[in-house]
Amino acid sequence: MADMEKFRSETRAWLAANCPPEMRKPVANENDVFWGGRNTTFASEPQRLWFERMRDKGWTVPEWPKEYGGGGLDAEETKILRQEMAAISARLPLSSFGIWMLGPALLKYGTEAQKREHLPKIAAGLIRWCQGYSEPNAGSDLASLQTRADIDGDDYIINGQKIWTSMANFADWIFCLVRTDFSAKKHDGISFILFDMASKGVSTKPILLISGKSPFCETFFDNVRVPRSHVVGTVNRGWDVAKYLLQHERSMISGLGDRSGSRPLGQVAANSVGVDEHGQLDDPMLRGQIATFDVDEAAMACASERAVDLAKAGQGHPAYSSALKYYGTELNKRRHELLMSAGGVDALEWESERSREGLAARSWLRTKANSIEGGTSEVMLGIVAKRILDLPGA
Amino acid sequence: MALVLNEEQSMLRDSARGLISDKAPVAHLRKLRDTNDTNGFSRDLWKTFAEMGFAGLLVPEDFGGSGLGAVEAGVVMEEIGRTLMPSPFLSTGVVAATALTRGGNAAQKSEYLTRLAKGDLIASLAVDEGAKHRPLKTAMQAVRAGNGFKLKGAKAFVVDGHAADLLIVAARTAGQPRERDGLTLFLVDPKAKGIEIERTAMVDAHNAARIAFNDVDVTADGVLGEVDQGAVLLEGILNVGRAAVASEMVGVSEESFTRTVTYLKERKQFGKLIGEFQALQHRAAHLYTEIEITKAAVMKALQALDSDFDKAGAAVAVAKAKAGSTATLAVQEAVQMHGGVGMTDAFDIGFFMKRARVCQELFGDAAYHAEQLARLKGY
């Protein structure tokens, strides 16, 4: 315990000395998020400094082993680091699907060669990854996917189409589910494979969303040649890898409820609607809704923390992340509904300097996808009902 | 601190669960209700509880207790919630033990705490006056008289007040209702002249009392803590009580939920187990999620009380508010999913609904605590 207190005070001191003041403010727009990758540029000098200092400590991925570019911290130390970062509202130095999703799957299922090839580049932000899971006819029913990989010598030839590929147009590599056996039952013929998005035959097309933005793409594979050694885990057993990765994706999405870095709702609302003579929000109904929301949000933050502690204590359930994904995304949608209420007509301006080009409205619209992506809320509830509660009729 | 029980706390839970489920299943409460028991709880069982060290859980070791913390009290309260065992544990073992330990002088501690830990003293906090919990709105007067005070006023919803050997009473030595300054806590003998106690059997077959104080004399020795400065002490005592009731509501929620899920797997309609219907599966899964999130919030509050007592207010407000909403949902869903049988007195599930309603009001409902959180956050 004394060691942990020492670690905490050293971490606090290091963060105080190394996190630039500019990196301790809430993220205001997309430029504030650093994603890494081959073609990356830094939006600012403080962003570069913060990233490089954290990378050099291995703290872009604090809990990964040091030999793969991580910080080699244990679960308790990682928790302390996150708490200390939250305490000064430090931004994430690097946002990455490689960190949140592929990395954990590679650590569990990858060969030593695959780990050494890919993990350090993820940790150092050199390669930006995207996920090739969904297809036009395989969304919630993901195992219906039809993208095919046919053997040709030492390679696979991949043909098909993916959809909802987050930021595929900026990604360097893709981790992808393909069908390698069409005769097997639908879960048993899928493999998990990695390849370079610069490969011949890969093309992407952004999908314009209701938010007026295009974070997602359609991605097409036309005779893409990929070495067979790029399969992660056992051929035709890719579903195991996919499920494991989805748990991490769901934990990540449920973490959307973690608002340590953004302005409190009550304060946003006070600036917009004003306060009465007692200093209370000048809209009692809105104040009550925000207060009720704050209770749920604080409780959700406790649950996210507890999920980590349960896993560490060996008391976790693999489907627990589905429950939190469901709750966290519904909560985030509620938050943005309240932000729109608080903003009133000002928040409705789509193109103006005052509304920062409709930032609140675009964010509000974007959150509507939270309860669809990574498995819909209904799919999450079904998983909880069957796998945790053991209700009949799977 | 990890948000899971450590080994000692798990052992405590197992031993509390064993005793409570064995000696006080829901049938125990039903029998006390149906026989119109004088106390509304079993004194023998309270004695057994004390012998096992539960009564003195929060009492310092110097006074014969175990000197444990809020987390441990919460562990026991959660088990009490599972079987709805009526017991003075909350009023005496949690609230009064906290009041005396934190506010008592040396003489008060030695006079009361040892007896309390032995199970020989039932003590009760009298704070509420109106229909809703508003501690700062306390209007009851404590007027200086000679070297002591005269208490005038009335209290409501005094948990176990009909059986108490000692009352802890909040009154105004100065100031006006809604003001923070001017509150003082008093230790009062319920047999003192001028006290009228009316037992109020509640909807949940637990007991409370309405108590009238007609110029009741209290000496200066009866002041708990400092005159006029009782608000901080009272708030701390109430916070422990709130977190404890939140734990009880977790027990109520989990037990109602477990019974409901079991029923979904047994009951057939339209030629199917009703648990096969997606409409019910999704509601059950939603409720599971709410309960898990509530458990985390409650444990956070209990740990906050143990690690930084004076700063635990926000965590306690979150826990009590969340536990109140979740318990309300859990018992409503339980009765609804049980269908007609859930409405019958012969079936136990209705007992959980009644207890959840009382726990919701006790020490402030979900709206009260959401309001507190808004104030703490300054909007």
From TrEMBL, chain A:
The record, for Pfam families, names: Acyl-CoA_dh_1, Acyl-CoA_dh_M, Acyl-CoA_dh_N
| MF (Gene Ontology) | flavin adenine dinucleotide binding; oxidoreductase activity, acting on the CH-CH group of donors
Organism encoding this protein: Afipia massiliensis
Q: What is this protein called?
A: Acyl-CoA dehydrogenase
Acyl-CoA dehydrogenase/oxidase C-terminal domain span: 236-389
Would you tell me the Gene Ontology cellular component terms? plasma membrane
Keywords in UniProt for this one?
A: FAD, Flavoprotein, Oxidoreductase
Q: Which domain of life is it from?
A: Bacteria
Which residues belong to any copy of the Acyl-CoA dehydrogenase/oxidase N-terminal domain? 5-125
From TrEMBL, chain B:
Checking InterPro entries in the record gives:
Acyl-CoA_Oxase/DH_mid-dom, Acyl-CoA_Oxase/DH_mid-dom_sf, AcylCo_DH-like_C, AcylCo_DH/oxidase_C, AcylCoA_DH/ox_N, AcylCoA_DH/ox_N_sf, AcylCoA_DH/oxidase_NM_dom_sf
By its UniProt entry, which Pfam families does this protein fall under? Acyl-CoA_dh_1, Acyl-CoA_dh_M, Acyl-CoA_dh_N
A GO molecular function annotation here is: acyl-CoA dehydrogenase activity
Report keywords, A-Z: FAD, Flavoprotein, Oxidoreductase
- SUPFAM superfamilies (UniProt xref): Acyl-CoA dehydrogenase C-terminal domain-like, Acyl-CoA dehydrogenase NM domain-like
Instruction: Report which superkingdom the organism of origin falls in.
Output: Bacteria
- Domain (Acyl-CoA dehydrogenase/oxidase C-terminal): residue spans on this chain: 229-375
Acyl-CoA dehydrogenase/oxidase N-terminal domain location, by residue? 6-120
Q: Domain (Acyl-CoA oxidase/dehydrogenase middle): give its ranges.
A: 130-216
Cofactor field: FAD
Q: Record's family?
A: Belongs to the acyl-CoA dehydrogenase family.
Name the chain's protein: Acyl-CoA dehydrogenase
Source organism per entry reads Afipia massiliensis
